[in-house]
Amino acid sequence: MEEERESVSKQNEQSDNYSNIVSGVIHEYDGDQIINDSESNAQRPIVKDGGCNGGQAPVEEISSRHRLSSSERSHTLAEDKIEVISCPKVNCPEKIIFCIDASVEMEKMTFRSRAGDKLSPKQLVKKGLAMFLQSKARIDRKHEFALILMQETAIWVRDFTRNPRDIQLALDDNLDPPFCETCDMGSVFDKIADKVELPHIEGNPEIIPPPYTVRLVFIYGRSHCVLEFPKKESYNILNLSPHFFLDALYLHEPPSQENKCQEVFDTVCDLDIKGLSYILGASRNPTKVYDSMAQLLAHPLQRPVQNDAAYRIGSSIPTIPVPENG
């Protein structure tokens, strides 16, 4: 009986923490930006200003590339001879590795909430990540999470855990972020190849579901530092597996001649050689950060390609006429 009481107490505590996270996000959620239902994720620009530029002229938008529909992706992959195995659409456990930018640029107050509060990318990532972790853990307790911090090279900070709180505490320990002039993306995949065992299937992977999938969620916040890729051996090996996936969220300043936002975003898009990644971005608007984290909740084996995804219920449901006689 005592063990049952402790279990119930822990569940109630986790539920209270989750409620506090949600209520905090809702308080500062920016409702000014309305997305047109007729626009697809890839066809519209990846980032919009969100109406927080103090009445000045609209800022230049970052354009999205490599965001293809399923039919376009099939044609492109056939031309490039990239083999993508179609795995069973099962909800197997995920091993999710968060690689989060730990540079000083993540501390800049570049976002503004509807209430007028200034927020840094780091603050938004922490809140969005908390919601993601708690939601994923509720969907399936078998999901596991690990943490990499990205400075000039990657630092593996936390091994896989099923407790979302472990990742949040590990992220809080990064108290003194450095100024980074470079970003060695190859080191991220070296760490993953060294620490993570990809699932091995005996038989046809198009028929037999994997015991788990591995997904890297890369969150980057530098507007002046383009990704560098001095070596790609680990990257190529990981991408040979049909059970490895990569998503990215880019938080940046408004694009201008003084920064390299478009160039950085292009290098982030170039990470997606399979056409299966979700590449998202946000500038100034906290809404986009929370929306992006929500979009990344979907299981990579069960979601459509990014350009085919729709997030408004009923927007494409045809109206069926009802006969006069019922």
Distance between the termini: 57 Å
Low-confidence stretches: 25-59, 65-81, 319-326
SS field, number of helical segments: 8
What's the shape?
Answer: globular
Oligomer: single chain
Brief summary:
By secondary structure, the chain is α/β, with parallel strands linked by helices. It is 32% helix and 14% strand.
Description of the structure:
The strands form two sheets. The protein has a six-stranded mixed beta sheet with strand order 5-4-1-6-7-8, sandwiched between helices. It has helices spanning 2-28, 70-80, 121-139, 164-172, 185-195, 233-239, 261-269, 286-295, and strands at 94-101, 111-112, 118-119, 144-150, 154-161, 213-220, 244-251, 279-282. The chain is α/β, with parallel strands linked by helices. The model is unreliable at 25-59, 65-81 and 319-326 (pLDDT under 50).
List its salient traits.
two-stranded antiparallel ribbon; 326 residues; 8 strands
Strand and helix map with partners:
Layout: H1 2-28, H2 70-80, E1 94-101, E2 111-112, E3 118-119, H3 121-139, E4 144-150, E5 154-161, H4 164-172, H5 185-195, E6 213-220, H6 233-239, E7 244-251, H7 261-269, E8 279-282, H8 286-295
